[in-house]
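Encode chain A's predicted structure.
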Amino acid sequence: MKMKLPRNVEGLLAGLLLAAVAVLLTVQLILARVLPGLASPITPIVLALFFWATLLGVPAATRADAHLSLGLVSRLASSRWRRRLQALGLAAALVFFLALAVAGVQVCWGQVRGHNRSLVTWCPDWVVTLCVPLAGALSCVRAIQCWRERRRASGREGREGETPPSSGGGKG
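Encoded structure for chain A:
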């Protein structure tokens, strides 16, 4: 049985986290005027949620193929070179995202062993930084999915990147 990730789970989650950040910032501004002592504990929570939302945006952008790419170079290249450039781009993305995931795991593991609680006293730091390896691993999956979709789409095109003629008639 093939396991498949929901289509936009990270984008939806990032959007919800950003909405929570907006609400908490509004509450913080109101509390800063009314009860200044209650406003400061909200800041680290806002920072943690924003960090998670930002890093969940990376796989969402990768899934949507909205990241930086070799667009100009691949448009000027022949279809054979274009496929090679896409494979090179995939390899570079995978190396980067895997390195991010491995570094994130190392940081999280160090925080678990050290019992760090510098950001929020009631929440261990590794819970906040767990989004780094999660985003790296999820970005790898999304990069492969994007590459496969691009290959499938180019397979429907002609040999030199031309679209096949439509079945509805001739040129007109």
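Residues 158-172 have pLDDT under 50 and may be disordered.
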